[in-house]
Specification:
Blueprint: H1 14-28, H2 33-38, H3 42-55, H4 63-77, H5 80-92, H6 97-102, H7 114-126, H8 135-145, H9 147-170, H10 177-180
Helix pairs in contact: 4-5, 4-7, 4-9, 7-8, 8-9
């Protein structure tokens, strides 16, 4: 284990543990510290996996828009682990990697379409405390995406906030998951959540 997590990782055991470790190594090239941290509470871990597994089946909103929105959300929160994982997943999903690399600095990047910029702004606004989503932005997205896709996008950003805020609180940070598949490092998230002194 390489991270200094606030809850020390525990040993991953049993048949379910063997499967989880095998799957992690096969899909990411490593067993992340987060798995050992979350192994302390298997019902929470299984529910989280179940939620994200079900979300993979949602199809009302474009996958690339959802991916960029989730990366913008976790970047805003300051979860380097989630950003690293999101970049890795964007690669595996054959998304536009030049755009994926630009998500943390999307405001100054010139690669995004007007719709993508609205989605990134929405994700960032949802991830503020308190959220800063405006009626105007919501109306633009509703017109461009339709209600089913906007609801799906909102739920995906909310889930990204759930996991990224949990990871930051637990001290779970990036481990180079994207490096494992040869991707160059992403820029550091705009907001960093430093541990209290």
């Amino acid at each position: 284990m390489t991270n200094q997590t606030r809850v020390p990782p525990t040993e991953i055991r049993g048949i379910y543990g063997a499967i989880a470790k095998w799957y992690s190594k096969r899909s990411m090239g490593l067993v992340p510290d987060s798995l050992g941290v979350m192994w302390h509470n298997l019902p929470v871990l299984k529910t989280t996996f179940g939620l994200f597994g079900k979300m993979e089946k949602w199809d009302q909103c474009d996958r690339q828009l959802k991916s960029f929105a989730q990366m913008a959300a976790v970047s805003t929160v300051g979860c380097s682990f989630c950003l690293d994982l999101g970049y890795f997943q964007a690669h595996n999903d054959n998304l536009d990697m030049e755009k994926a690399r630009q998500v943390p600095g999307w405001r100054t990047a010139d690669v995004f379409t007007p719709l993508e910029r609205d989605v990134l702004e929405y994700a960032e606004a949802m991830s503020q405390t308190p959220p800063t989503v405006t009626d105007e932005l919501s109306a633009r997205l509703l017109e461009q995406l339709g209600a089913p896709a906007l609801i799906e996008l909102t739920a995906c950003i909310g889930a990204a906030n759930l996991t990224s805020r949990s990871n930051v609180a637990l001290g779970i940070t990036a481990q180079g998951i994207a490096d494992a598949c040869g991707l160059p490092p992403l820029p550091v998230p705009r907001t960093s959540a430093a541990a209290p002194a």
